[in-house]
Amino acid sequence: MSDTADIQKAIGPKSSGRAPGPGRPREFDESKALETALNVFWQKGFEAASLDDLTKAMGLSRSSFYGTFGSKQALFQRALVQYSQKALDNLQDVADTAENDPVGAMVEALADPQGGSRGCMLINCVTELAPHDQDVATIGRRHLESIEEIIARAIDPDNPDTARDQASAYASLAIGTLALRKAGVPAERIAKTLAQAKSVLSPD
Amino acid sequence: MSDTADIQKAIGPKSSGRAPGPGRPREFDESKALETALNVFWQKGFEAASLDDLTKAMGLSRSSFYGTFGSKQALFQRALVQYSQKALDNLQDVADTAENDPVGAMVEALADPQGGSRGCMLINCVTELAPHDQDVATIGRRHLESIEEIIARAIDPDNPDTARDQASAYASLAIGTLALRKAGVPAERIAKTLAQAKSVLSPD
DNA sequence: CTAAATATGGACTGATCATTCCGTAAATGT
DNA sequence: ACATTTACGGAATGATCAGTCCATATTTAG
């Protein structure tokens, strides 16, 4: 196998933005398919999401799946990155549109993410895969650092560095409550936990 | 199949404490084997721990494995319960032997559990399985509630109920940092996060 | 119209999974 | 010694896994 073929395999087949040259056109929307796959991974995790699950949900044949995304692993990484960007955008948006307590609003948003009981996809995947998958660990670490950065900027826009540890504490707190929620601790108890922590942590 | 056979299957085969009646004696120590299995599950998670992994580590044939533990699922639940008991005992011990700051010591212990980078087995398993496995969710919820209880008693032995929310916040904080650690956030940063949170949360 | 290029459907492959089964070994009770 | 009971080693089973392959379909370029 040639070097270029290796590289081609590593980065995945001619995935997106290809020129409208010759050949039969795709019968599906690649970014829609990616979004669908993201939801399957979010709900089931990486290992438990089988190719049948994925292709059925995405409406793709296996040929189209591999032709477009290269491998389950490659698709998963694209989904993770996409999720991270979307989640960070959403968090920033919460910070920007909060009326009086942006930090509190962000903590609430982190502790009760969109998507019901699936929790945060990145935390799920970090827990499942990061110890044995360096790429996932890196994506997860950057995501967490970005969360801390956004919170720190909201705490003190002028000196975000000094607020970094506090921001990290808020983020860890919110992430910890995700485990409570998954284990079935009542939402009311979790709300009280957050309220307690916020009342003490906030400078008021 | 008879009802008794159903029950027998549900609770697992003649597992422990059997009378030394007739028949060939076991060539292995059941509790040692359970402990070994626990470590495999801890390191790999439930799905990723194959029966080859388990039986090889435990030194059992498949016959002995199924004859003793009934199924992978049943063995896993026994391992989870055993882990929970051990972890709670250890936490209580940290609280009892701490010199001046039992709560802080417990938070440190929760945030940096024994077993290196494997994190807390129960948090791992709750994240992986609780959404789709009611039994695991229940074991996890009870474990988390027990942690909160132990912390609350250390905060205020006379009125542990009033300290419950604060205890829950400490526990969530510590559990959240486990995700940071798995994602490869430097230990030094995590220590600063905990120090910051403790200095603010503690009544001093 | 023909050749080249890309996409699709679905059968196929080889590996691995949890679990079962069977022949044999090793103990007890009579 | 012999029947009974339990344990062991390891082959067999059927399901499922990710990934490949090929015949066919649909497009563009000339």
Describe, in plain words, how this protein is organized in 3D:
Chain A starts with a helix and ends with a helix. Chain A has a domain at 79-201: Tetracycline Repressor, domain 2, CATH 1.10.357. Chain A is mainly alpha-helical and 204 residues long. Chain A is 69% helix and 0% strand. The first copy, chain A, has helices at residues 3-11, 30-44, 51-58, 62-69, 72-97, 102-111, 121-129, 134-155, 164-182, 187-201. At the A-B interface, α7, α8, α9 and α10 of A face α7, α8, α9 and α10 of B. Chain A binds a DNA duplex (30 and 30 nucleotides) through α4.
Summarize this, please?
The structure is a homodimer of 204-residue chains. The first copy, chain A, is mostly helical.
In total, the number of strands of chain A is 0
Helix content of chain A: 55-70%
Radius of gyration of chain A: 20 Å
Distance between the terminal alpha carbons of chain A, to the nearest Å?
A: 63 Å
Largest interface: A-B, 46 and 46 residues
Largest β sheet strand count, sense and barrel closure of chain A: none
The shape of chain A, in one word, is: elongated
Number of helices of chain A: 10
Look at the structure and give the mean pLDDT of chain A: 90
> What is the multimeric organization of the chains shown?
homodimer
- Spans of chain A with pLDDT under 50 lasting ≥5 residues? 1-12
CATH fourth-tier homologous superfamily of the domain at 79-201 in chain A: Tetracycline Repressor, domain 2
What is the CATH topology classification name of the domain at 79-201 in chain A? Answer: Tetracycline Repressor, domain 2
Q: How big a fraction of the residues of chain A is strand?
A: under 5%
H and E string of chain A: HHHHHHHHHH
